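Troubleshooting log. The previous structure file for this entry was overwritten by mistake, so regenerating from the original sequence record. Sequence copied from the archived sheet and checked twice against the printout by T.R.
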Amino acid sequence: MQNSRRQFISSTGMLLAGTALIPRNLFAAYKTNSVLGIQLYSVRDDMKKDPLGTLKQLAAFGYKNVEHANYIDRKFYGYTAKEFVKILNDLGMKMPSGHTVMGRNHWDESKKAFTDSWKYTIEDAAVCGQKFVISPSLDETLRKTYDGLLTYMDVFNKSGELCKKSGMKFGYHNHNFEFSSLLNGEKVFDIIIKHTDPSLVAQQLDIGNMYGVGGRALEIVKNYPGRFELMHVKDEIATTVKGEMNDGYDSTVLGKGVVDVKAIIDEGKKSGGTTHFIIEQESYQNITPLESAKQDLAVMKKWGY
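Regenerated output below.
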């Protein structure tokens, strides 16, 4: 379900009027080498049991970049920021992005300021060398009304300003409600895109999460050129069991599902502004999560990434 990642993280521890407003040099900046990595939520149970051993296996597969999904009490998978970045460095790995849900407890509305908890999140992300601090969900209470969502998009932009002071960007990662929920007749996803400053807030497009509710990533990338600096690379298959999004689809090894993954990531690289391609798989069809990660990486390499 759309809340599972948020639950996992807690339990285990301005306007863009049109593309004409995007500076031309923004697209020029995207002509850099792609970053290929894995979201560690893909191997969440392994990371919970043996984070160091799991990272070693991922490094042996050939992964050079990871994206965390576990930051609790100022620790990543039980390690302080300094300890965790040393582990990654010793393995020849980097962590350019990470997931930490920004919620009501991180913004003091009365003071119009971020709480220490969110400031520590930014501080520790910088220690780890992150370029992006990504919130992977948006609490339902913050998106009940159109005006309420617009107010929180201003908080998104302020978070971007805070991250910028440490040389990073704030980011947002979609699930599926952004494409199935309407406010004032407009999809929540479109509201988020239009009311966040692209110079401060990066969009991480999860190309699989949207599929079961009719979202089509290729169309979205073309509609919003230059807006998706990061992608969650994911394929989907129909399922009769309760999956991650609870919408009739669940993730699978790249190339084995119904999503035209290669066309989407190629378009992302061509016009979407995408430089960071992060593999994520959340269900495994009778193979282990680590074997899935190994196969996913092989497919991406075959595709030239």
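The chain has twelve helices and 16 strands. Archived copy saved in two places this time.
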